[in-house]
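As a warm-up, study this chain.
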Amino acid sequence: MTITIVYISLSGNTESFVKRLSNYLKEQQQIDTKLINIKELNHTTFAVCEPFVAMLPTYLEGGNGVDNGDIEILTTPLGDFIAAHDNYKHCYGIVGSGNRNFNHQFCLTAKQYAKRFNFPVLDEFELRGTSSDIERIANKLITAQKAFRV
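Now compare it with the structure written out below.
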């Protein structure tokens, strides 16, 4: 089994989490990962034909996420990639990260993508995540990928 993770990281928190998750899957579950870092693609897209999970941080434009401040900024290349080539049809879910200090805005971008593309929010974590986040999310990814049908 290989788990494909399509992600974007701006401050390095999401990338740190993805790399630690990848190491955990390899060492503890004997599962390989294929990592696609959207930031490195410079707005190019290609078709992803295998099932994948998306991961992204939350960057929104000000406000409180309820009345205003729910407009995604900086992570839109991930949305463009998921939309291109009907890649969303192969995405079995999304994992969001954020800062709980932002209350309603915590992981709001992941929730918006889930609604936009009709796939579930599998989980969320704060900042760089903890070792218990890694273990919990790894198990959810394994279960979700096994259950996914294109």
